Amino acid sequence: MKALKSFVFSRGFKLILVLLLIFTGYSFYTNYKEIKDIGFAIKEMEEKIEMASQKNLELKEELAYLNDPSYIEEIARKELGLVKPGELLIIPVEEKE
């Protein structure tokens, strides 16, 4: 018992205890920092997912608009000069001065 008591109060034991506390503190700090960094990365990814989902929704809406028959007809009339059967296309002639 006396030998154990003298070992507990010896410099070697105190040094080992201090080193153990330093190692434990350092391990705790590095793990905490890593968890914090991972949390930040997760938050960034969630924001990117939200932005991508919003962009995806916008593109789906645009695709639905571009595939709408009335829009296709409008483009065919304006840009291609097409007419429906039975309609006449009238092109105004500009007068030169």
Put the structure in a nutshell:
The chain crosses the membrane at residues 12-29. By secondary structure, this protein is mainly alpha-helical.
What tags apply to this protein structure?
97 residues; mainly alpha; 3 helices; 77% helix
Instruction: Please count the helical segments.
Output: 3
How widely separated are the two ends?
122 Å
Spans of at least 5 consecutive residues with low confidence:
none
**Backbone structural class:** mainly alpha
Order of helices and strands: HHH
Beta-strand portion reads: under 5%
Could you say which overall geometry the principal axes of the C-alpha atoms support? rod-shaped
Helix proportion of residues, in percent?
over 70%
Mean pLDDT: 90
Count of distinct strands: 0
Secondary structure elements and pairings:
Layout: H1 2-8, H2 11-66, H3 69-80
Molecular structure report:
Keywords: Cell cycle, Cell division, Cell membrane, Membrane, Transmembrane, Transmembrane helix. It comes from Iocasia fonsfrigidae. InterPro entries: Cell_div_FtsB, FtsL/DivIC. This is Septum formation initiator family protein. The protein has one domain. It is built from three helices and no strands. The protein is mainly alpha-helical and 97 residues long.
